[in-house]
Amino acid sequence: MTTGSLGLRSSGSYGSLQQQLFQNSSSPIQTTPPIPRKPPKLFKEKEGLFLWICKFAPRKNVGMLLLCVVSAAAFLWVLYVGKGEVAAEQSNRMFAPETVHKYIFRGIESIQKNNVGQSASTVQPPPPPLPPSPPVYFKGYTLPPGNLCEGFTLPPPPADKKRTGPRPCPVCYLPVEQAIALMPDAPSFSPGVSNLTYIHEENQSKTEFGGSDFGGYPSLIQRNDSYDIRESMSVHCGFVRGIRPGHQTGFDIDDSDLLEMESCQGVVVASAIFGAFDLIRQPKNTSEYAKKNVCFYMFVDEQTETFLRNSSELNSSMRIGLWRIVVVHNLPYDDPRRNGKVNVRSDVKFESSSNFPPKWRLLHSRSCSRQSEQALGHFCYLSKKEKSEQVPKLLLHRLFPNAHYSLWIDGKLELVVDPYQILERFLWRKNASFAISRHYKRFDVFVEAEANKAAAKFDNASIDFQVEFYKKEGLTPYSRVKLPITSDVPEGCVIIREHIPISNLFTCLWFNEVDRFTPRDQISFAIVRNKIMSKTNWTVNMFLDCERRNFVIQGYHRDILGRLTPPRASIIVHPPPPVILETRHTSPFVPTSTVITTPIKKIPTKRGRERKSKRHRKVIAGNKDPNFN
Question: What's the rounded Cα separation, in Å, for the pair 582 and 481?
Fold first, then answer.
């Protein structure tokens, strides 16, 4: 049988494989011809469905139904395709490089957290910075129950009719150790202002009235703006020229002293003597802790330095007892035009300078020239002294920028209580940042102004102008309506304060009023305090004047001590010697005779010398109040 009879194709056809197998086989294989394939059943069903649709589609109802079915199918298909694209997008994002890196980094982090103890070489990323903690402020304290000072009240004044003037009264201080332990470790809250800067002016131009080269010449608009309390403020506060306070600004201080003053970071006690007007008085009852940690500074001018060196009190150490002596050069108010002027009233006649009353001040009538200085002695220096003393008195926060607390005392005062006890009693216990004593007698600014004019403290016209200016700004006489404000007139010889922005602002504005108007700071105190209190809840602790006299003792000025006559030596009157009557004895052999003796006169006793009559007291002429200055 041949391949052609078998129906197989030759080579090159689909049956070539079968032909090779047939040729290679040893026995013939009988194959059957291929069976033709039947069309699939599904194709037949689709063909029948298509014919059925073509047959019934021309009918109206069936056509509409078919159209709805096709539309629904197309809508579902679109939804299906869109969902697939979103899933594909998400899968692409999931497997994007940055996503893969993030998941890998998280996996590494989790592995590192789980294997902290196993792998010491694993480097962890730094933790995020913590948010800043809120500032901490001192909020005061209450004394523990049972403390003697908790319920302390002032006893009634002693009934001594012979002493009617001001006197000290008892004050309850804590022991020094307890006062130091209660010292705050955080500053007090400064209401209204938290950031205070100071104006620096090299080129100054005088506007309106008042001012000086040292304090600047702020306009009235700038003055009103300084009383608009804000969180961040910039005001005039002396030292408007130069790089830093005390360096080419007026009131110049040596650099070595400035460095030591800047290093004082705790409590500073300061005073000043200009014109050798007072004697240096050493603090008493000061603890060893205060001697080591409190900065005691005494500011003097060149004239006072010369006097101290000539009296052998000052040597190269620049220390006298606890006081560190700081010499001030180039006093800001050394210009005679800024000094007081003398105005001798026509109804008062003085033959020489020694006849001037001690309390006479220089007024605004005649210039205090060199000739008048020679004629009037130290009186031409008084107004300059008052102006210059206001610099350390009110601007200690500028001279000691790093100090936290300060205690100012006038040069005529002697400190007799530890500074920490004073701070605890009048600041920390009261939760106050500024404390000053009231005037012992006057509470009203208008009464104080009249007293200043009567005592010739300054030119009457200048005082009247200042008071009228304050009247227009709303200053009213003091009355009980102003309570809890207890007085409008302070006794400015002692100032206790904490150096925070609000108290620094108060003393800056107070100094600006003294620089613009008269140097009588008691007149300008109330207007500055009232303006600040109207914008904030800041208050001033005005304690009693008798409490002030408890921790400072007031002495006489040096010139007054020189004029005081030394006390006379008391004359001791001895009683007369007793009279001895001698009797003559006659001999028995001699006849007796009558002896006439001279009668002894009886010395009359003066009973009036033993008791002093109240009606014949010696009254010293002049002002009876030694504290009015």
Answer: 87
